[in-house]
Amino acid sequence: MEPAVIEIEHLEKSFGDKRVLTDMNLQLKKGENLAVLGKSGTGKSVLIKCIVGLLEPDNGKIVMLGKSIPDLEEDGLNEVRKRIGFLFQGAALYDSLTVRENLEFPLRSSAPKSRDEIDAIVTDALHSVDLDDVIDKMPSELSGGMKKRIGLARSLILSPEIIFYDEPTTGLDPITSREISKLILDVQKKHNASSIIITHDVECARITSNRMMVIHEGVCIGEGTFDELAKSDNENIRAFLG
């Protein structure tokens, strides 16, 4: 059995007297796509921030790539973060840089490379999201779906072992959403990356995930494949899956 690349046990997080995560348990296996579903404000983003060390949990264990995240100093955290990729909600491209420069940006913090090596990595990343011809365009010239693809290409530049997708289809039309969802599957197959997909888009979760977790008011209320969850007796799960 593949080892877990992320292991979370009894994670709790509050802000003042507002409990956001309650006794959260999660395992992500190598090469697996896990969708974390829930309405806005249910703690999905807080969960991700705890996993990557941007927030300190109140209680619980978080182990990622063999390291206990709450116990790491900043240097250790940065080493782990080099092995993970992010696709943020708004694609988070630098508006003043061309697509090429946006994709080259993460390479500045890695081992020095020749111009030819950099060009090859950038071309390959663009090819993997089917956008070879926009390399010299500015982000303002791209559609929302294209920006999302470029954001995904940039997150692949350093060949991450784990990718976090934060609401990857928000704000996109249904056809583009489906294209992005299929792209997430392609990335999984090509790179054998493990991914956590934070979403409230049930169709995206159904297409992309091997397994799903549903969070309601900071508690995991169900876990399994889409088909398993669709048969759940839990009213909140059934309401969420429609």
List keywords for this structure.
alpha/beta, Rossmann fold, four-stranded antiparallel sheet, globular
Explain what this protein looks like in three dimensions.
This protein has 2 domains: 4-83 and 160-241, 3-Layer(aba) Sandwich (Rossmann fold); 92-157, no CATH class. α4 crosses α5 and α6 (174-191) runs parallel beside α7 (202-208). With 242 residues, it is an alpha/beta fold. The longest helix has 18 residues, at 174-191. The strands form 2 sheets. Strands 6-7-8-3-9-10 form a 6-stranded mixed β-sheet, with helices on both faces. Strands 2-1-4-5 form a 4-stranded antiparallel β-sheet, covered by helices on one side. The two termini are 33 Å apart. A hairpin with a 2-residue loop joins β4 and β5. 36% of the residues lie in helices and 26% in strands. The protein has 9 helices and 10 strands.
Structural class by SSE content: alpha/beta
- The fourth-level CATH homologous superfamily of the largest domain is P-loop containing nucleotide triphosphate hydrolases
Integer tally of domains = 2
Question: What is the first-to-last residue Cα distance?
Answer: 33 Å
Largest sheet: 6 strands, mixed
Large-scale geometry: globular
The tally of beta strands, per DSSP, is: 10
CATH fold node name of the largest domain: Rossmann fold
Count helical runs: 9
Give the C-alpha Rg.
18 Å
% residues in beta strands: 25-35%
Quaternary structure classification: single chain
Order of helix and strand elements from N to C terminus? EEEHEEHEHHHEHEHEEHH
The parts where pLDDT drops under 50 for at least 5 residues are none
CATH-defined architecture of the largest domain: 3-Layer(aba) Sandwich
Helical residue percent? 25-40%
